[in-house]
Amino acid sequence: MPLSDILARAAGLASEAGSGALRQLQHVRLPGVGQASATDDPETAARRWRAVTVLTDPEQLRAGTPEPLTRFGDRLEIRVTPAPGERGAELAARFRDRVGEDQLGELRSALREAKQRIETGEVLRNEPQPHGHRAQTPQGKVLDGMDERASEEGVL
Questions:
Q1: pTM above the 0.85 mark?
Q2: Which DSSP string do the residues of 71-118 spell out, in sequence order?
Q3: What pLDDT sits at residue 156?
Q4: pLDDT score of 82 more than 90
Q5: 68 alpha-carbon distance from chain centroid
Q6: CB atoms within 10 A of CB 49
Q7: Are the C-beta atoms of residues 108 and 152 closer than 8 Å to each other?
Q8: What is the pLDDT of residues 101-138, one digit of tens each?
Q9: Cα 95 off chain centre by
Q10: Contact by Cβ (8 Å): 124, 116
Q11: Which of 13, 71, 76, 77 is deepest in the core (most CB within 10 A)?
């Protein structure tokens, strides 16, 4: 067997082994190391802090609850800490009691809105489209659905 074939086969085997190891490590929890809440059970996910970094002085955030978060009333715990690297403040919130996925999405959206209001004074929106109405196409419906859910899910 030629040397180039041996090296190609060895590289392929190493790649498969590495991806298999990463797949297993993805679900290992280490004390003190964060993990996405996507793999958590609903009880743990509901108690997890959701946070955004805001380009402002932490004392300004401690002075009062940002407007989008006030609609949750006393159902939230709110924490303000200096952001790493002196990059403003970290605004974090979590529910006091167990809630569903819809309320978690509303909290993620409210945190993003609070960040935008504090940093720019307004919340940017894609709607309404400046070019008016358009006929719905299958691709357009998919894109509109993704855009609608992006504020709660955090991903477009």
A1: no
A2: TTGGGEEEEEEEPGGG-SEEEEEEESS---HHHHHHHHHHHHHHHHHH
A3: 44
A4: yes
A5: 17
A6: 13
A7: yes
A8: 888 889 998 999 999 999 988 877 666 565 666 677 88
A9: 16
A10: yes
A11: 76
